[in-house]
Amino acid sequence: LASRLRGFGTTVFAEMSALAVETGSLNLGQGFPDYPGPPEVLDIARAAIGTGADQYPPGPGIPELRTAVAEHQQRFQELGYDPGTEVLVTAGATEALAAAMLALLEPGDEVVLFEPIYDSYSASVAMAGGVVQPVPLHPPADGEGAWTFDEAELRAAVTPRTRVLLVNSPHNPTGTVLAAAELAVLAELATAHDLTVLTDEVYEHLVFDGARHVSLATLPGMRERTLVVSSAGKTFNVTGWKIGWVCGPAPLVAAVRTAKQFLTYVNGGPFQPAVADGLRLPDGYFAGIARDLQYRRDVLVAGLREAGLPVVSPQATYFATVDVRGVQPDGDGLAFCRELPRRAGLVAIPTVVFYTQEHAALGRHLVRFAFCKSDAVLAEAVERLRRLA
Ligand code: PMP
Ligand code: GLN
């Protein structure tokens, strides 16, 4: 393994999903729904197989999907993008982020991001020869509300080598949605230091309790320096389709396209028309998936609390983060997760894997549970959680 990839072994998601299969446990680890997406969207993909859609789509994605992405950005964020030059279809958000890093970073350039961080970020930055500068998000002091960053810690992370600010809101794994005042701080900082901003918005529609996701690109001065990344996986329950996209000013999107051309060239032929259709579903669809998931959140959060696991009820995403110190005397979340199949027939993700070495202590006692599961699985999971008491 080349030195730039040392330390990046098997992803924790693969490891924990394998453990679930091996032990016959319920998998509340890896974030994927166990229920299907909207039937009309699935039907379009089925019908597209066996047609010209099986062959290479156009490099930037089929025009119909690029137009649908631009219309979706206009409808939900009032952001206007030219489908011809300002939208690129990618192999999931993962490729969009990796291609953006390859396109933007010179060796040694720094990327400021918030920790805990989604696991592909560090690897993508490393593969592009960059360096991460993590800024910790702190849990709410009273156990309710959102995780937040300390402005002084954020400012201290920016150096003359900082090239990119990478922001994930709604945030995996904490379920936090950045507030307007926090977005304003980020916008001011990006402008002052002339940073390119990458926003990972894959959970944009999975927001609860009437809260709304606001893209950082909508703030004054941000559109021209921001690449907005999202994907179909979470919005349409099709995490295996790997259809993602990037929107931004033409020169930045062209740079990402240059990298994407030589990573995968194109992807997901038959899925592209299906996702285009999904993005045009009425507002009620998008409100409906959030409402449905909010109900699942409430079921799991209640079960976790009953089992003696303090949990911050998340504002968004698929995930709830608990403190295991009450049920794991050494407070080690990784050890807790390794034993959880035996103790309770469940699998979860130790939050420590979302931290760099430097800040690992902040996540040692935390564990992430996914609630994007069917009623029967959630009910059984809540039942099994009682075994921890
Ligand atoms: N970003 C975040 C924050 C995620 O949680 C995930 C995983 N679902 C991704 C990116 C990857 O998205 P995709 O499957 O579209 O590559
Ligand atoms: N994003 C999902 C999660 O955080 C899984 C993605 C993956 O397996 N790479 O659980």
UniProtKB/TrEMBL annotation:
Pfam families noted in UniProt: Aminotran_1_2 (PF00155)
GO (cellular component) term, any one: cytoplasm
Membrane-crossing segments per the record: none
Domain Aminotransferase class I/classII large: 26-385
Gene Ontology molecular-function annotations: kynurenine-oxoglutarate transaminase activity; pyridoxal phosphate binding
EC number assigned by the record: 2.6.1.-
Domain of life: Bacteria
Cofactor: pyridoxal 5'-phosphate
Keywords: Aminotransferase, Pyridoxal phosphate, Transferase
UniProt record similarity statement: Belongs to the class-I pyridoxal-phosphate-dependent aminotransferase family.
Name of the protein: Aminotransferase
